[in-house]
């Protein structure tokens, strides 16, 4: 769930849309105005546009900037993504501010659902601001298609990881006060993205990449979209998954996955409604009501599951993997099983389960643990994993 979601669990779509309108900044040409014909820098990570952001609700002293930059989609085609850079208050340390590349959880799939268009940056009240308050700079990507034009390849580990990685490159080129060393951190959808970042950085052999934090990550996609009855799950995400499938595989027909009841509100979430609207539209419905029987066995879904597999590839740097024992959105047993599989495949990680915590509280109540672990990476302290102990 997004920031403050637990106190705003609307079941009426009109109320949800009104709340989203209230917490969203006005439309800005920053995201969509034509690019300068003189801007011929199109490599991934190249900065397109920068502007100081003075319209967020931020803690005292934190400075925010919006950036527009080139990235890649899942097929390594050039796309344009947006992000926010948060600079801490106080005296810049020698070598620059250590950098956290933040990957957010599901905000929606429509262009209007970019966290950088939200007054509190979506996760502001859920721990994001604690990072700059602790002396860590942040670059927080929106993911392509959120904010910028183009279809958001929702729940695709490659597309989201590229957006994170190239947000770092863009931020470091635009802000010399940032250090070269960085870590990735993400929650939910972002927990999968941050893990994928670790895999890609292993291929790149990036010495400045120091590790990953994955919190309640959708690192076991089959468990996420087809949970066991005892795991409950969150079917209101599944129409968004259908959107992501069509964005990734354009010939896919969403009607093969959605029932007529499931499609009823699909145009809304595909065009303008974000997380709250999606929750209101589908929260009272079961998976069998909104999704076609056997939809997870569709060839395109199996292709998506194969592309998003986590735990079989080596990673760069150590990992911290966190989950909540009471998580009803991303089943914790699926997260644990993926961590066990990763350990068996030689990945060095630390796993921790917070007993009884649901999806959002796991993020909120683990923030200080995340910050402490991240600071240890920047201090180059020895990493102690716990493979075999969970």
Please, could you describe this protein's structure?
- By secondary structure, the protein is an alpha/beta fold.
- The chain has a domain at 38-223 and 309-378: Alpha/Beta hydrolase fold, catalytic domain (Rossmann fold, 3-Layer(aba) Sandwich).
- Helix content is 34%, strand content 17%.
- It is built from 14 helices and nine strands.
- It has helices spanning 13-23, 29-32, 130-133, 157-174, 189-204, 221-225, 238-248, 260-263, 266-271, 275-282, 287-290, 299-307, 332-344, 359-378, and strands spanning 47-53, 63-72, 78-87, 97-103, 137-141, 178-187, 209-215, 319-324, 349-354.
- Strands 1-2-3-5-4-6-7-8-9 form a nine-stranded mixed β-sheet.
- It is globular, with a radius of gyration of 19 Å.
- The two termini are 26 Å apart.
- Mean pLDDT is 95; it is low at 1-6.
State the end-to-end CA separation. 26 Å
Largest sheet, spatial ordering of strands: 1-2-3-5-4-6-7-8-9
How much is the average pLDDT?
95
Question: Any idea of the CATH class of the domain at 38-223 and 309-378?
Answer: Alpha Beta
Q: Which features does this protein show?
A:
Lipase; disordered N terminus; 390 residues; single chain; globular; Lipase_secreted; alpha/beta; 9-stranded mixed beta sheet; Rossmann fold; triacylglycerol lipase activity; 34% helix; 14 helices
């Amino acid at each position: 769930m997004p920031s403050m979601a637990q106190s705003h669990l609307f079941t009426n779509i009109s109320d949800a849309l009104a709340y989203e309108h209230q917490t969203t900044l006005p439309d800005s040409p920053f995201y969509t105005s034509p690019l300068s014909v003189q801007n011929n820098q199109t490599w991934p990570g190249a900065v397109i546009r920068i502007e100081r952001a003075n319209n967020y609700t931020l803690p005292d002293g934190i400075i925010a900037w919006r950036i527009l930059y080139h990235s890649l989609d899942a097929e390594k085609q050039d796309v344009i993504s947006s992000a926010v850079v948060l600079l801490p208050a106080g005296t810049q340390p020698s070598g620059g501010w250590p950098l956290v590349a933040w990957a957010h959880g599901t905000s929606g799939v429509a262009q209007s659902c970019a966290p950088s268009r939200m007054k509190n940056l979506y996760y502001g009240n859920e721990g994001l601001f604690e990072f700059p308050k602790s002396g860590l700079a942040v670059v927080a990507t929106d993911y392509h298609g959120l904010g910028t034009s183009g279809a958001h390849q929702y729940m695709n580990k490659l597309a989201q990881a590229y957006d994170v990685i190239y947000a770092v490159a863009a931020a470091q080129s635009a802000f010399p006060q940032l250090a070269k060393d960085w870590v990735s951190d993400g929650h939910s959808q972002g927990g999968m993205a941050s893990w994928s970042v670790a895999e890609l950085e292993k291929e790149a052999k990036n010495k400045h990449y120091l590790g990953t934090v994955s919190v309640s990550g959708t690192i076991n996609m089959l468990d996420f979209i087809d949970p066991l009855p005892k795991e409950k799950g969150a079917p209101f995400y599944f129409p968004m998954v259908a959107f992501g499938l069509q964005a990734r595989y354009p010939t896919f027909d969403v009607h093969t996955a959605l029932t007529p009841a499931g499609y009823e509100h699909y145009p809304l979430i595909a065009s303008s409604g974000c997380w709250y609207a999606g929750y209101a539209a589908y929260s009272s419905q079961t998976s069998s009501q909104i999704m076609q029987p056997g939809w997870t066995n569709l060839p395109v879904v199996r292709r998506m599951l194969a592309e998003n597999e986590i735990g079989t590839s080596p990673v760069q740097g150590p990992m911290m993997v966190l989950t909540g024992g009471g998580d009803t959105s991303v089943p914790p047993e699926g997260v644990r099983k993926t961590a066990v599989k990763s350990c068996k495949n030689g990945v060095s990680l630390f796993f921790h389960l917070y007993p009884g915590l649901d999806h959002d509280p796991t993020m909120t109540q683990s923030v200080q643990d995340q910050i402490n672990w991240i600071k240890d990476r920047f201090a180059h302290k020895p990493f102690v994993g716990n493979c075999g102990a969970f």
